[in-house]
């Protein structure tokens, strides 16, 4: 028993399909036999299979365009329902920056001092390196351990502002001016640089003592806690 077209499919009935096929076939035969329009008959013959398949499924193109459009939309909705639901990929949380802005500024100042091409004397470069040696581990601790807010601020300011400014303010000066020009106090810019670096180094040592003193205090608190919790009195023995 031949399959009946669905009511909502828009396809032609078997009778209408037979009539359309007969008309189409007669059309290309007539066009081909006239000689004048043979190329139209040839095109109709070549696309006959595709046209029949479309008309059988969709109906005549000029008939009820709105209904055909609605049927296409309905087919798209049915296909969408059959598709498996998209699996949402959970958002990957952004990892914290492993290096703080103060650490980057400190590293940049050290690089500029070491690559100044001899414009900064060896003693001053050594002082910059010593400041870096003291500050870098202290800044690393700030990322993993609690610190006094004022000490944290002083460490980040020294590394992120004071040392870079000291180095950069000196390096903008011409080399001969930095070593030969005398200020009203009788010092050269190179002398001023060394004095500033010594002051920064003293500040680093003070901050280091403050951080270590807090660590020692925390250790002592833990000792007192453990002693109170676990030491037995003579009566318990």
Tags for this entry?
single chain, 237 residues, mainly alpha, 2 domains, disordered N terminus
**H and E order:** HHHHHHHHH
Computed structural class: mainly alpha
Query: What proportion of the residues form beta strands (DSSP E)?
Result: under 5%
Low-confidence stretches: 1-9
Give the biggest sheet: none
Helix content: 55-70%
Rg is: 44 Å
Strand segment count: 0
- Amino- and carboxy-terminal Cα gap: 101 Å
Give the mean pLDDT. Answer: 77
Number of helices, counting only DSSP H or I runs of 4 residues or more? 9
How many domains? Answer: 2
Overall shape: it is: elongated
Report what the structure shows.
By secondary structure, this protein is an all-alpha fold. It has two domains: 70 residues, no CATH class; 125 residues. The chain has nine helices and no strands. Helix 6 runs parallel beside helix 9. The termini are far apart. The N terminus is likely disordered. It comes from Kineococcus mangrovi. Keywords: Membrane, Transmembrane, Transmembrane helix. This is 5-bromo-4-chloroindolyl phosphate hydrolysis protein.
